Amino acid sequence: MNKFILSLDQGTTSCRALLIDQDGKISGIAQKELTQIYPNNGWIEHNPNEILNSQIEVIDQVISENNIETSQIAAIGITNQRETAVVWDKDTGAPIYNAIVWQDNRTTDICEDLKNKNLEKEISDKTGLLIAPYFSATKISWILNNVISAKEKAKSNKLLFGTIDSWLIWNLTEKQTHATDFSNASRTMLFNINKLEWDTDILNELGIPKSMLPKVLNSSANFGNFNYKGHKIPIYGVLGDQQASLFGQKCFDATSTKNTYGTGCFILMNTSDQIIKSKNGLLSTIAWGINGKISYALEGSIFIAGAGIQWLRDELKIINSSEESEKHALKSSDKDNLFVVPAFNGLGAPYWDMYAKGLIIGITRDTNKSDIIKATLDSIAYQTKDVLTSMEKDTKSKINLLKVDGGASNNNYLMQFQSNILGVKIEKPQNTEVTALGAAYIAGLLCSFWDINHLKNLKYDKENFNPKFDSDKINKLYQNWNKAVKRSMNWI
Questions:
Q1: What are the strands, taking DSSP E only, across 367-449?
Q2: pLDDT by residue (tens digit) across 197-249?
Q3: Which residue, among 182, 156, 150, 177, has the nearest Cα to 166 in the 3D structure?
Q4: Dist. CA 64–CA 66, nearest whole Å
Q5: Rounded to an integer, what distance in angstroms lies between the CA atom of residue 237 and that of residue 448?
Q6: Phi and psi at residue 281, in whole multiples of 5°?
Q7: Where are the beta strands (DSSP E) in 81-177?
Q8: pTM of this prediction?
Q9: Rounded to an integer, what distance in angstroms lies between the CA atom of residue 62 and that of residue 65?
Q10: Mean pLDDT score across all residues of the chain
């Protein structure tokens, strides 16, 4: 019988399960959307139990719909939305509060307090990250200080913290394993990426007991077994979603770069065994750990990408589906004078301005909805150029190829405009589920389903986009984009 890796892809908007065969092909997929909870302005939460139940539901669905015997599943790989924080009771297993999502900005005041204590350099040097509500650390601190009795429970070693991978592993292994991998640990703002350990000074500063934290393992490691209908399936791989995408794109070599166009945009460059300290608003992070060898990455995180298209659909209601955005962009009569800056939750890399506000600028009497839709798509490409420009400055290297994936990469208008505005070749695999593939690949290494050379030689169909704009047009457009961003950052 054919063997498969079961890839669990727990994202910001949905839970998915995929079956991957030895040729790297997807043999089955199941998906369930996730409820978004908005208790206050700028707050975003998920129900941890809904995440768990939905993930198990799609596992059941993909196995039953594809008539797979559980014995055919060689291993499980997990990839997850990063930075989202869950705190649960060690004894009962119940969450003491909803998961606080990576996009949530309720902890801005905590971050400002850390900055006022002049801790920015120390935290950056240790974790590779900037002080921002984006990361898990201040979310944990908020829960401990705002949920009744949480602080007391934490002091008595009754609470556990985890990013979503840890929450799933804890439950799938029936409370046997409280662990995470290097990639997810490096996104908490609590992990020293130089010493590869939880940082006591930062924990003490935020009042977080070390006893809450999971054990940190290699990304390719034994995380325990999922007892599924009497059959023990080993969990052999864990990667944060953006590192999984980097691995799935087979960016194994230094300077290879990818962008995932999901809810946000996440551009990562493999920097091999080197930690590159950014001077241009980017983050240093761990890409993965395999056989005790750590690979690092340089990352630029953009908060609003596909979420901007969802805004057009759900709030403005000027499109009925994301797919419609491409048709409107192509029929827009705007002469590149309209700019949308989607700073709905502030601006991420390279600006890191939590107080920036979204704006639409350049409106004239004949501006129509197609023009606004086009400008929203264009904003994704401009933000990506912001990050790649910073990467080139930090690494002193020219990026000539950008590998892309994620839902919005299926928009051919956006991909062509992206190539135009960057002036580089864009490579898009026909199968854009590379995040799930990355989780499968990392898990498959441990059970000899694949090795790195095998993965490098796996063939896949791809589509290329080459630049068509001249440099004068690129420079003019980008200068105007920069002006719009500055207006967004000085809105008061």
A1: 401-405, 425-429
A2: 999 999 999 999 999 999 999 999 999 999 998 899 999 999 999 999 999 99
A3: 177
A4: 5
A5: 12
A6: 80, 15
A7: 86-89, 99-100, 159-162
A8: 0.89
A9: 5
A10: 93
Q: Which residues contact 66 (CB under 8 A, 6 or more apart)?
A: 19, 27, 28
Distance (Å) of CA 310 to CA 10, 119, 408: 19, 36, 11
Contact between 436 and 18 under an 8 Å Cβ cutoff? The reply is yes
Angle made by CA atoms 147, 153, 158, in degrees to the nearest 5: 125
C-alpha R_g of the chain: 22
Q: How far is CA 296 from CA 252, 274, 289, 302, in A?
A: 11, 6, 9, 19
397: tokens are: 């290297």
Q: What span, in angstroms and rounded, lies between the C-alpha atoms of 259 and 246?
A: 8
- Phi, then psi, of 172 in degrees rounded to 5: -65, -30
Query: Is residue 394 within 8 Å of residue 279, measured between CB atoms?
Result: yes
pLDDT in tens, 289-309: 999 899 999 999 898 999 899
pLDDT of residue 401: 94
Distance CA 61, CA 293 (A): 36
Helix (H) or strand (E) holding 479: helix 471-489
3-state SS assignment for residue 126: helix
